[in-house]
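Task: complex structure prediction.
Instruction: return structure tokens for all chains below.
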Amino acid sequence: MFGWEFPPHLSGGLGTACLGLATALKEQDVKLLFVVPKAHGDESIPLINASGVTLAADETVVRTVHKRSDTGSREIAVAATIRPYATGAATRAVEHWHWQYATETLRTVKSGSGIRYSFSGGYGPSLMEEVARYADVAGAIARQNNFDVIHAHDWLSFPAGVEAKNVSGKPLIVHVHATEIDRAGENNIDRRVFDIERQGMQAADLVIAVSQWTKDILVRKYDIHPAKIHVVHNGVMPVQVDHWPVTPKISEHVVTFLGRVTYQKGPLYFIEAARKVLDYFPDAHFIMAGSGDLLPAMIDRVARGKMSSRVHFTGFLRGKQIHQVWSVTDVYVMPSVSEPFGITPLEAVQAGVPVIVSNQSGVAEVMDHVIKVDFWDTRALANAIIGVLRHKVLSDSLRSNGRKEIEALTWKRAAGKIKQLYHEF
Amino acid sequence: MNSDQQYLNLYFQVHQPQRLNMFQFFDVGSGRGYFDDDLNGDIVSRLAERCYLPANALLLRLIDRHPEIKVTFSISGTALEQFERYTPKVLQSFRQLEETGSVEFLGETYYHSLACFLSPKEFALQIGRHQQKLGALIGASTTFFRNTELIYSDAIGKQVSELGFTGMYVEGCDRMLAGRTPNALYRHATEDLVLVPRNYRLSDDVAFRYSDKTWREWPLTGKKFASWLGRLPRHEKMVSLGMDYETFGEHTPHSTGIFTFLDDFITVMRKSRKFRFINPSEMASLLPVEHAAGAKEGVSWADEARDVSAWLGNAMQRDAFGSLERLHDAVMASDDVVLIDAYRHLQTSDHFYYMATKDGADDGVHRYFSPYTSPYEAFMNFMNILADLELRVGRLRHRRHMVYATPPALETDPAPIRW
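Output:
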């Protein structure tokens, strides 16, 4: 299995999903070799660290992170190429808020008779190069290991999966957690990413999509045959937080956006809805938690609308800070333009927060006990926010029914389906 | 008279709610109407084509040839007014049925409402309004009653009796009958009121199971169904089958053969020596009424639970109904017929039915009927309309007080209300 990011490092939706799925598959007695470009050693399952694999030598050994050694290395920097979630000059202003925009680069390290790549494993400027080199390493890993099926998560690892298939002749499953169409919108796609996605799906024996929404995109925009695509919805990992951090509430009515502040997540629709809500609910407060290339534009929009005293920006949050935000939130809004799945709403439900999601999301397919609106319909969104704020009985019902509902959305269920797909080969 | 004679009562429920407009919070105070006339017109027209007109034609044809065939209808006021507005042909065919003398109509609340839980006075007014409408449009009068979705309790039975009805329909379930047969008449424990239990097992064979291909009795023919009735013991004198009239052609499509089923079943039963058709007003004179039955808490024909949880089962439903209840006095004091009529249309049980958050098979049925994508949407929409109604009632009161003062600013400037 080839991944990219893995918790607790760089854990966006992809890493979270990989952890949930890998853990559940192991529990169902599936033997996994999980490869990531850069393992840190503190992950909850053993990983194969691609940065530790030596290439072009006869006796190369795959070392797991637990036995990593970095002696006698030489570093070679590779030129920058791509930044996946960021475009435009505005990014620079918010870079320091968003640790995902690391400026790390890929280094090639001489190691004994061969070389190995020291991957950043992030989304830095040398991403395209890393993706290509990751595939080289995958070929070596495929030669050195025995396995029955190859499973690659998202385009970052598709070339790796394809290479592993070429080397081993074993069937390839590519798992689509998000597409370039989701991230960039149809008119701003990076053609190179799009092509890697499509080639990966074409080379694959089977494609897993995290929702029907995503499957439809794969069929329509990538021209993949629907019979080849299986929908397996994500699960959510149970959390046990005994002591929720208590943060003083700024208001009785707090509405939260939490996610990357990028085109895909629809932050502008959140701000537009806030404007409409504030006309009627002057005491409501809005939190925009997260960062991204649209953040400066959002701050500007709020200032122009004279809403700065009611709309608060937190920058990028992690771990405990996210719990703090949930603890003060009365309703969570995910107005995504195109959301393949959307784990954050499920985490909100777990934290006891009522949820409003866009119909343009995978999570809308699996959750009944949330309010659903079209992302562009800011009036309907504002109406829903007001509904939840006004009626305690509504938020209570969403909270308790939602909690019950997500109990069935387990990774165990998802892993069971995927295990079945493995056995089809 | 043949003492072994058994009787069959067919009761069909005709109801269409006035479905609500999508009404956002921003529409509060805007003057936007509450009811989705386009949607309602479309649905009623579709139902007229698929169900009401062909089914009425079928019954008329059978009754014209064999007047001993008898049928009972209950048509809600909200359905009647929509037929009047969108499909007068349907009214005309019901009038023809009434003129045969073989068809009896039941009383109910005009608004197919939950008024029995509001106040005895409101309940009585809505029943009176229904009688007027039924008389005016169909030419029928009523002696038997059926409450919304067969909701019944001893207290409701008492009120119905006090309003002068001879009897009423109830769900023939164990909570009502304590395990006794539904194929008999019962009476209220203290009042002079006949209770007609619906045989829900046989009724649901038609209403729910007829088109279920996994049912071991599928396909059900009229002849086969009639044979089941023929096997009932002699001492079970009367079977009442009650179901939505929309079963024929809407819930169960024409293509399944449901009309042929109805035609065959009635024809076979007419020829039967054992059974005669009966309408409720003849029941008390032809049949014994020996035992009392009843229930303290609400019983109904809805959902697995057969109680009132389909409408008032969750917190949202109870909060919405409570909010409606609290507005009652203010709305009535407004003395504004348009507002009062709107207020009563908001009492229609369907609006609460859409807010249910049940699991399993019940959930499927609730969703089938709902114009909303979720119960939460149904709740929000209803509450927004209620907020608007409250605002309008408030403005009216304000204006009355201000008759001799300066013109009210509220009239020209519908400033948003602050919550």
